[in-house]
Amino acid sequence: MRVRALRVLRGKILPFSIPSTVDDELNELYQDIILDHHRRPRNRGQLPAPPASFAEGFNPLCGDQLTVFVNVDGDKISDIKFTGQGCAISQSSASLMTQQVKGKTVAEARAAIAAIQELLTGENLPPIAVQESLGDLIALKGVRKFVARVKCATLAWHALDAALAGHGKVSTE
Ligand code: ZN
Question: How many A from CA of 143 to the centre of ligand 1?
């Protein structure tokens, strides 16, 4: 009797509410953000250089390529664009990056670069306050579990760093 009752209950309830943890829901949300930026990349294109400075990034492990263009006006990033090709993580990370640093100061952009490095490659996650400052970029957090993909996600940030420093080329190797 009990087994039968359980079966009936399962048949009724499971199709409508599959138990999920907060973690599962977060992972789904993160995937949605990454896929959204992959499908509709923000700030894709080129800026005339000069005045823009730019850097090309290459991740030989995955074959990802990115070129990041930045216009710095005083101490502010007045415009930023990127072109390139590669896996969804590399391209959506670049799109998320442009959204995060456009209109920010160079110092704020450098702080974001450091925070992303810590988020993806740090032994421990950055403090909650730093994680919260990352906004949608927190979607990249799940990548830290997949060592082979970390360089896909950090490529755009290495390229931004190089462009701000006036170095034309950067490789994750
Ligand atoms: Zn990749």
Answer: 11
Stretch 147-173: mean pLDDT: 91
Give 19-74 pLDDT, tens digit per residue: 457 667 767 778 889 999 999 999 999 999 999 999 999 999 999 999 999 999 99
Domain tally for the chain? 1
Closest CA to 142 of 95, 67, 99, 92: 92
Ligand 1 centroid from CA 172, angstroms: 11
- Spacing, Cα 93 to ligand 1 middle (Å): 10
Fill in the amino acid letter for 10. Answer: R
CATH number, domain containing residue 129? 3.90.1010.10
What is the Å distance from ligand 1's center to 153 Cα?
7
| CA atoms of 13 and 17, how far apart (whole Å) | 6
Domain residues for the domain of 119 are 21-171
Residue reference for tokens 């263009």: 69
In a domain, 14, yes or no: no
Per residue in 65-108, pLDDT (tens digit) is: 999 999 999 999 999 999 999 999 999 999 999 999 999 999 99
H helices, E strands: number in the chain:
6, 4
